Amino acid sequence: MAVWRPARPADAGGIGRLSRALISAFPERDAVFEERIRLCPEGCHVLADGDEVQGYMVSHPWRRFDPPKLDALVGALPRHADCWLIHDVAVAPRARGGAHAGAMLERIAHLAGGRGFAVLALVAVGDAQPYWRRQGFEPVATPELAARLAAYGAGAAYMERRP
Question: Candidates 3.40.190.10, 3.30.1050.10, 3.40.630.30, 3.40.50.2300; correct CATH number of 3-161?
Answer without folding.
Answer: 3.40.630.30
